[in-house]
Design goal:
Elements: E1 34-35, E2 53-56, H1 62-73, E3 77-82, H2 86-98, E4 103-107, H3 113-126, E5 130-135, H4 150-174, E6 185-190, H5 203-222, E7 227-234, H6 245-252, H7 263-275, E8 283-286
Parallel strand pairs: 2-3, 2-5, 3-4, 5-6, 6-7, 7-8
Antiparallel strand pairs: 1-4
Helix pairs in contact: 1-2, 1-7, 3-4, 4-5
């Protein structure tokens, strides 16, 4: 629910919903993930063998980067996924190295199903087996009922729903079977407060996030007990493309708390959920109570009103 909302139909990281990171252009044929330079000292795996490994999609910038850094501070080694911004991903990796943790940047087009299926194997080869996935990247294009196109909806569903489901399935398959069975991994899906406070703006994006919310609940049942699946739903968190600082500041105050979420708030919620072993199949809203105030339009289009 971040609301970096593009006024034009272009894929962007959305501040209100977690991290909306542009999806890479669809390739002519399936391609394997692209790996950047590994973290310094990654060959010395003995020094951090016990550290859990997290994959954060769309971690080259904005909320995704904040989440990756927060997980590193919490003791995770981190795979920094990127779609197009390799340089941004490498900056995130460098910041994680500065925290004393291992990290690697891996590029993958989340609209490319074979590449998504291969992603966790690539992570394991570069850094170790993943036990935590944060599905932060999402496609965020502006549309409405008036200009709806099935092809646009299909693009949103591939990146925002199908890729997280495939990653959850692959993680479940890679986790060992324990006797007795016990939780061993977690998938955290970035959703959006607007699912609890719906409006018709950004129609394809909203439909895809509603599907991901349902998938969160269904997968929590289907993949238990090995895997927990949890949602985190931010409010307006970062300015949308084309949104003025004044508009963003006004929109951020339209909550019961008089403030919305910050990237640090969202990252702290992700770290909490990652370590909360009894939480699955539900969503934590991190939005200053924005979902409690019904609105007819997306918050970026609203002016400040009396509360």
């Amino acid at each position: 629910m971040k609301k970096p909302r593009a006024a034009t139909p272009s894929a962007r990281p959305r501040a209100s919903t977690g991290a909306r990171v542009p999806a890479a252009r669809a390739p002519a044929k399936a391609r394997a993930p692209v790996v950047s330079k590994a973290a310094p000292g990654s060959a010395q795996r003995a020094t951090s063998k016990a550290a859990p490994v997290a994959l954060v999609t769309g971690a080259s910038q904005r909320i995704g980067r904040e989440i990756a850094l927060a997980l590193a501070r919490a003791g995770y080694d981190v795979v920094v996924h990127f779609a197009a911004s390799r340089s941004g991903a490498q900056e995130t990796v460098a910041k994680i190295h500065a925290l004393g943790r291992r990290a690697v940047a891996i590029g993958c087009n989340l609209a490319d199903d074979p590449a998504v299926r291969a992603l966790l194997g690539q992570c394991a080869a570069e850094l170790g087996e993943v036990t935590c996935i944060v599905n932060n990247a999402s496609l965020f294009e502006s549309d409405s009922a008036a200009d709806f196109q099935s092809a646009r909806l299909a693009r949103h569903m591939r990146v925002n729903v199908a890729a997280p489901i495939v990653l959850a399935r692959e993680l479940h398959q890679r986790l060992p079977d324990l006797d007795p069975p016990a939780p061993q991994g977690v998938v955290i899906n970035l959703l959006d407060q607007k699912l609890w406070n719906p409006n018709p703006d950004f129609l394809s994006y909203t439909l895809s996030k509603a599907s991901l919310k349902s998938a969160t609940e269904l997968l929590a049942r289907a993949l238990a007990p090995k895997l927990r699946v949890v949602g985190v739903a931010p409010g307006i968190t970062l300015p949308a493309a084309g949104q003025s600082p004044e508009n963003f500041a006004r929109a951020s105050r339209l909550t019961p708390l008089g403030r919305s979420s910050t990237p640090a708030d969202v990252a702290a919620a992700v770290v909490f959920v990652a370590g909360a072993g009894a939480i699955t199949g539900t969503t934590l809203l991190v939005d200053g109570g924005q979902h409690l105030i019904p609105t007819e339009r997306d918050v970026m289009f609203l002016q400040e009103a009396q509360r």
